[in-house]
Amino acid sequence: MADIIPRNVATVPSVEIRQNPRAKRLTLRIDKHHAVPVLTVPKGISMGQIQSFLDKHKGWIADRVAALPEGIRLVPDAAFPFRGAPHIIRHEAGFPREPLACEGEVRLGGPVDHVEPRVLRWLRRCARTRLVERATYHAQSLGVSIGRISVRDTKSRWGSCTATGNLNFSWRLILAPDAILDYVAAHEVAHRVEMNHSPRFWAEVDRLCANRSAARQWLRRHGDGLMRIGPPPGGESAAD
Length: 240
Ligand SMILES: [Zn+2]
What we know:
InterPro entries: UTP_pyrophosphatase-like, YgjP-like_metallopeptidase
Organism: Iodidimonas muriae
Pfam family, one: YgjP-like
Bound molecules: zinc ion
Protein name: YgjP-like metallopeptidase domain-containing protein
Helix content: 25-40%
CATH topology of the largest domain: Zincin-like
CATH architecture of the largest domain: 2-Layer Sandwich
Number of domains: 2
Strand content: 15-25%
Domain YgjP-like metallopeptidase: 24-222
CATH superfamily of the largest domain: Metalloproteases ("zincins"), catalytic domain
Largest sheet: 4 strands, mixed
């Protein structure tokens, strides 16, 4: 199909504007979940200033949004990665309601409009099971204790560790290859030894995880794609 509209004009999406009295200056970022630009506006900025700022950056906005991977909804016949391997959602009335990963498919039955929330809940449970398993294993290897493990839809970090040893992870890690989930689990557990990113911290990670630089590179390259799978936050149904 011919593209007769210049790309910069055609692809500039509407910008979400957030007032923040504590902000020091106008800042622009891309919300990767929703694929929308977000402009943070400090006090005392006029509409004219906002407009000229956006005009100046419209090429950047268009390029960044166009570069985002396409969103994938978890609906029947959709293809998405599960533990790093492509899977197709196969919905048939006769299948059990509980999703089952089998031969490159995620099979489930039940009402068709329940498919996405049910697949999401199942993915979160799978993520939690594996993260608990791997974090417990790494904690035993380092001889450290860990607290509660939570699996959430984190926005900016794949995992985090509190001062008291509670670990938080993104459920989306279950979409990545096992070695990637394992690296993030090892990383957060290693913070139980060193609460920083010093050379001593990375030495602990290396004791747990054979190839952390490849894992970090994978996340940099594919992380945005994982953020675009399933309904954007806020669009998720109440089933969760
Ligand atoms: Zn860290």
